[in-house]
Specification:
163 residues; alpha/beta; Rossmann fold; six-stranded mixed sheet; 5 helices
Length: 163
């Protein structure tokens, strides 16, 4: 933690929103980030939840505060009308799919289109969750998907193991 410093720049605020199909692990990832553990069970997310944390980072050699708000959203298309207001002021969308279910990657096209239609200049990040399970999606398919949809970066993780 830094002491107050006149060189400290204005706090940068980032809003990140989790998007993806039901069952890909968005709520488990959210719980891992918010509480630091993997929930034994989760119920379907019926309304969005958010978590805010301030980080102190160095940017161009200068200390800066970055306030990150992470939103866990409903992962079913039938709730789209509820989630459109949650896109407002979004800096980046974390597009989550399950590495053991190829259709969850393919269905992200819907979420990409939604994010781009409601957010100006939104950055997209692709996250393959459940990396502790057998990966059933070829790496080249994920790479092509990311290139085709102009996704910033691709990551794989396991909300369960924290790795």
């Amino acid at each position: 933690m830094w002491k107050s410093d006149s060189r400290m720049q204005q706090t940068q605020r980032l809003k990140l929103i989790l998007l993806g199909e039901f069952g890909v692990g968005k709520t488990s990832f959210f719980c891992r980030v918010k509480h630091g553990y993997f929930p034994k069970s989760t119920l379907s997310t019926l309304s969005p939840d958010d978590f805010q944390k301030t980080y102190h980072v160095l940017h161009n050699g200068q200390p800066q505060e970055v306030e990150v708000t992470l939103w866990d959203t409903v992962g079913e298309e039938r709730f789209d009308s509820l989630s459109t207001t949650y896109y407002r002021y979004t800096s980046a969308a974390i597009l989550m799919y399950s590495v053991d279910r190829q259709e969850t990657l393919e269905h992200l096209v819907h979420w990409i289109n939604s994010a781009r239609s409601y957010c100006d200049d939104v950055k997209l990040f692709l996250v393959g969750n459940k990396n502790d399970l057998e990966d059933k999606i070829p790496k080249d398919k994920v790479r092509r998907f990311a290139q085709e949809h102009k996704i910033q970066s691709v990551f794989k993780l396991s909300a369960k193991t924290g790795m």
